[in-house]
Amino acid sequence: xxxxxxxxxxxxxxxxxxxxxxxxxxxxxxxxxxxxxxxxxxxxxxxxxxxxxxxxxxxxxxxxxxxxxxxxxxxxxxxxxxxxxxxxxxxxxxxxxxxxxxxxxxxxxxxxxxxxxxxxxxxxxxxxxxxxxxxxxxxxxxxxxxxxxxxxxxxxxxxxxxxxxxxxxxxxxxxxxxxxxxxxxxxxxxxxxxxxxxxxxxxxxxxxxxxxxxxxxxxxxxxxxxxxxxxxxxxxxxxxxxxxxxxxxxxxxxxxxxxxxxxxxxxxxxxxxxxxxxxxxxxxxxxxxxxxxxxxxxxxxxxxxxxxxxxxxxxxxxxxxxxxxxxxxxx
Length: 331
Prior knowledge:
By secondary structure, the chain is an alpha/beta fold. It has helices at about 60-65, 135-140, 140-155, 170-185, 195-200, 255-260, 275-285, 300-310, and strands at about 20-25, 35-40, 45-55, 75-80, 80-90, 100-105, 120, 125-130, 165, 185-190, 205-210, 220-225, 240-250, 265, 295-300, 320. The two termini are about 20 Å apart.
């Protein structure tokens, strides 16, 4: 049985020429994932090689696995982008990072390469690990934390005393967004399924909105964040006041409806960088946000992790993979 106490904490061994990685050779369901021994990569200009202590699992990994990420990918590929670990080699043109630095962040703009004992990471897309977080907690945070930051402040451009409706507040990004917005004096409302209402009670919400109720009877907001997508997105327009904004990270808002409602539509893909991660680290330091880990499983069970993502009954929080310590299995 695997447990968190098996997370490697000993000094890094000499770099192994080979490693284990969870890869796909064809696009498809979770069953296409297989753990292969492959050559350990070498860092090129702008990259660092990271001994991966933990790797987060997210919905974007499933998009990569099925070939629907929107980013051209060459097969076979190693899945995964969220990582926490220790720098073991530094490429040219990297100034901030040194061997033995402990970092968290994402691998690269293609969001691949993280489910492995070693991963190449762009030096501009990682930051120093928050000292109060474990390796597992830190690996759970980069993409969802930065997504919440950028949706609220870069894309919705919210200000204190304004209001926001978060569609999908019970999810991983939503929980971060609620706490971040409330801490800055934004009035935060949320949508919720009946089964999620109890879990939302611990969040600093001003209220919960029923999307099926007439929008005219509800409070209007300056912005809505859509973390769900699908048919329910169109109902959000009725809750946004004229001149407001609908920001989605999952599907493109209907521009015709947006024009009719005088609402600015905004669809974006998160851009994780060192500056954003440093902001997130400060929010962890001050206690504004807290990591939420739902399951910790070994790299060998990466296929199971992707099956769990599709299971609505799984525990809330991020799934995190623990690779075996280098040399333990990659010989």
